[in-house]
């Protein structure tokens, strides 16, 4: 797997990550969603540099100009519900892409362990297209891998790009082992620790709840 840790280089990205983590600022759910969206835009820009391009002739009021434009079929897929603001950031830049949505959540067992349940799935064909799979938090990596495996029922993409805001080192190691070897991970920042319940430390809390409110 090719890992692109954008946060390793100082940029305005640091501000958006800091505000997502800050327990005072993150209480503003509109700002929380917007910061995730902004990070999605930054990751989209960085990822766009590795896509295939083709020469196109553009006619202006005063002449013509040859411009290199993306020559690829993209499908953006978000894991509900936390992935929605990140999806919007991608869609702001890849506005001609097709879209897919899938639900994945932890079903806690009596012993405290959990299974990953996938219960909702809407997608176009993925066959020979470039799939961008977006989930703001990469903790254990199990839900992301389960999601990718479910998506394969709609075809095998030619490329896989994973977009993440905050990931754990354990989660990255897990998806490296279980996703295609040539996949790309575009991530804003990495934390080293998972707690006993599989949550990222220091992380930022529950991204879905912070974006959309508490769930039952």
Topology (SSEs and partners):
Layout: E1 2-5, H1 13-21, H2 29-48, E2 53-60, E3 63-70, E4 74-80, H3 84-93, E5 98-103, E6 105-108, E7 114-117, E8 121-122, E9 130-134, E10 137-138, H4 142-151, E11 159-168, H5 169-178, E12 184-191, E13 193-194, E14 200-201, H6 207-212
Helix pairs in contact: 1-2, 2-3
Structure description:
- By secondary structure, this protein is an alpha/beta fold.
- The protein has one domain (2-212): Rossmann fold (3-Layer(aba) Sandwich), CATH 3.40.50.
- It has helices at residues 13-21, 29-48, 84-93, 142-151, 169-178, 207-212, and strands spanning 2-5, 53-60, 63-70, 74-80, 98-103, 105-108, 114-117, 121-122, 130-134, 137-138, 159-168, 184-191, 193-194, 200-201.
- Strands 1, 4, 5, 8, 9, 10, 11 and 12 form an eight-stranded mixed sheet that branches. It has a two-stranded antiparallel sheet with strand order 2-3. It has a two-stranded antiparallel ribbon with strand order 6-7.
- Helix 4 (142-151) links the parallel strand 10 and strand 11.
- Helix 2 packs across helix 3.
- It is globular.
- The chain starts with a strand and ends with a helix.
- The mean pLDDT is 93.
